[in-house]
């Protein structure tokens, strides 16, 4: 059995996503499970090169995992021949510049979303990467979650008949940082630092809607900054300049209407932090991160509106759990494995920079719809 080592720069590895999801739960987990095995028996073996701004943090993090390859100098890491992939999990604003540098260095590139801060920049990156012949990918982790995989299985199996609508509820309370520290980095709440829930979440909604239900043709949206002042990591109060909630309607192919609330200012009375209810003529489903429940038309109750009486039925109990019927691994890891197969063996991988640019476009148009108070059509982006 041949082992094929592949050097991967992990830039922004000290951050929440870079460390937990990408280094620990993906690249190191891939090594723990023996690498990624190709059909010819070769195993791809990721060799992470940790890149960041803070030497002390990098050294400490590397030692914690028995790693030795780390640097604060991105340019020298990009100059190495044994490094074939550049991965970016930095704050969004730093991404474009670093990716351009990686394209110039001829590296394959995988990145967290959003790909860039605006559509023009994202599209330009997609074109530059194409011209340089490098293989690109953008994280679309939600597609690999067990709940959404089961939902996709229902769609593919024709469970819904004609799909009418999708209702998404995403969010939880992010503490303001005064009497309890916030559980998300403060840059998320400053527009000038690339923050905002639309920029953060619409790229996710774009690929979820398109992969499960169809092309997004138009968006209407109301946004709000419900909490106007927050307290940062250093205990300093700062004005929140970015949207912390978005109430959007997306119009999809086939007349499907998707309505998705995204909020960091909502308290959870749901089973999971995100849930999508899909209603079709033949049946309905509610999918979260892990679970997916269904109700077929044959077992649909016939409630009659009568506010004078207490509810006569236990509506929640009338849904059936969809069984896993397969093993679901961590979504970030599954996508990393697919990307590594794409780079090393040329296997298909459709979540590329152009797909990422479409997510950025939806965020940009969502913000425009909110700012101008209008419904905005979504033109098709081409490379
Ligand atoms: N796929 C997902 O579900 C998901 C979830 C959360 C965040 N993200 C994305 O991941 C990226 C990182 O988000 P995070 O929550 O890990 O953020 P974070 O603040 O925890 O980490 C940011 C990283 O960027 C580095 N960095 C580089 N230049 C910086 C600068 N000038 N200022 C501040 N930090 C700088 C930091 O050192 C750190 O390593 C963002 O682009 C975000 O959109 C994706």
UniProtKB/TrEMBL annotation:
Q: Where is the GFO/IDH/MocA-like oxidoreductase domain?
A: 149-285
Q: Give TM segment ranges.
A: none
Indicate the segments forming the Gfo/Idh/MocA-like oxidoreductase N-terminal domain, all copies.
Answer: 50-138
List, alphabetically, the Pfam families matched. GFO_IDH_MocA, GFO_IDH_MocA_C3
Q: Which PANTHER family match?
A: NAD(P)-BINDING ROSSMANN-FOLD SUPERFAMILY PROTEIN-RELATED, OXIDOREDUCTASE
| Protein name per the record | Gfo/Idh/MocA family protein
Q: Which organism is it from?
A: Micromonospora parva
